[in-house]
Write a structure and sequence with these properties.
Strand content: 15-25%
Number of strands: 26
Radius of gyration: 23 Å
Low-confidence stretches: none
CATH topology of the domain at 78-200: Diaminopimelate Epimerase, Chain A, domain 1
Shape: globular
Distance between the termini: 31 Å
Number of helices: 17
Strand order of the largest sheet: 8-15-16-17-18-19-21-23
Helix content: 25-40%
CATH class of the domain at 78-200: Alpha Beta
Structural class: alpha/beta
Mean pLDDT: 94
CATH architecture of the domain at 78-200: Roll
Amino acid sequence: MLGVTHTVFTGARFTTLAASRPRADAVVVRGERIVAAGTVDECREAAGTGHREVDLGGGWAVPGLTDSHIHLAGYARGKRWIDLRGARSLADAQRVLAAYVRDLPDRAWVFGGRYDANTWGLDRPLHRCDLDPYAAGHPVALQNHDGHTTWANTVALQALGVDASTPQPPGGVVEMDADGPTGLLREGADDVVYAAMDAHDVPPPEVFADAFTDLLASGVTTIHDIDGRATAAAYDALRADGRLTVRVHQLFSHAGLAAAVEAGHATGDGDAWLRTGPVKLFSDGALGSHTAALSSPYEDRADDFGVATLAPEELLDLALTASAAGIAVAVHAIGDAANTTVLDAIAEVRRRGVGARLRHRIEHAQHVAYPDVERFAALGVVASMQPVHCTSDVALARRLLGKRHLASYAWADLAAAGAHVAFGSDAPVETIDPVEGIRAATTRTAAESGERADGNVLTPPQALRAYTTEPAYASGEEHCKGRLAPGYLADLVVLDADLTDRDVAASGSARPSVTVVGGEVRWSR
């Protein structure tokens, strides 16, 4: 590249994750890629005359971190929407809603939520009438903490066309009582809510640019965006004016599969900044919504096995269709029954030899039957997991699952079996902070309560790889991402403490000070 000089990054202790040179004092960058790593003198010599130097200001540098499961549109929108995560009771939520709607334009929609009614001590389900007196005539549709149940008021249900005659949708539940819909829409039943969000709240590119700043400040240089093609226009606009500062591996939705096949899109299309990922499918729901599909019933509901959002034959058909087109599948599965169903489908795809090189994924893989742990490795299925779910849900999981024999949040068991385990946040459901994810993976201890999930802790280096080298494998980029070595992209984050140290990892206190993407400092504290 004419006119491109070498840059020597110094002033940090580099953990490279490269077998040939695991530690370095400097790296040399030309363009967007690393050309050398070693001592400062070695790197200066490799850079030659006329190079520039960037002093990173001290600290510990690691490869740029990847969030392998983030809903960026949801995160960006959520910063502007009502936030009920701090509500400790129904009355708290009602007070926040009443204050939030006070200054809204007439009839404006109210989205957001992230409430956790499991902690409110109610002896009954939530109801639309709990919202009506506090909504001042606004349509209100609030997602719960896990994003798998929507709580809507009467005005919103009317606007969405949901009434007593509404049929139960495939893979979803419209909760009903003697007076019609109660206001709780579970799984596929809330597709109408997502359509309303897209119709009434389209985030402009600036909102995503702000979200990128948050990611960079957390040390994240690549995301695997689960929100599908809804964000594509914003990414294109940001790239056109030079504001795409985080690399994007973009999944797309079940609804977009036919169009993607018709257009000839395939997983891996694109370049180092914008890259096409798998198709996202749903096999079940979430534990807190009682919609995770289990092989035996929930402890508090003797006849409730959760919700299978796709029949096994439909899941297999979709996986075959996608694989034949060169598109990997990334299937949401939380309950043990759902994980078995997904693994069965991928096993059949593998048996038929369709898309043999595709790297299929299971998103979350939270509660897995022990015989299925080794199937992840045998079938080449990536376990895309979010360690903070373990520490957030430890009490909930014990209450709803009891002492059944399951591999729960079993990243260590999966890794020991030879499976690739890639970590992410599931933001906005959980924090985007990967340092907190590393704390959760290495301690399995809830930050507030101190309650601890049994076993399956990772070492800090293992947890770091789950945010670096393993996501690179999942996206087919292990040859250019996840390490600080010659030929790799010059993406790195400098922290004020060593994330590979057990005490530092367990404290969750390490903070980024500089984030570099493509050889350029994109953020500094």
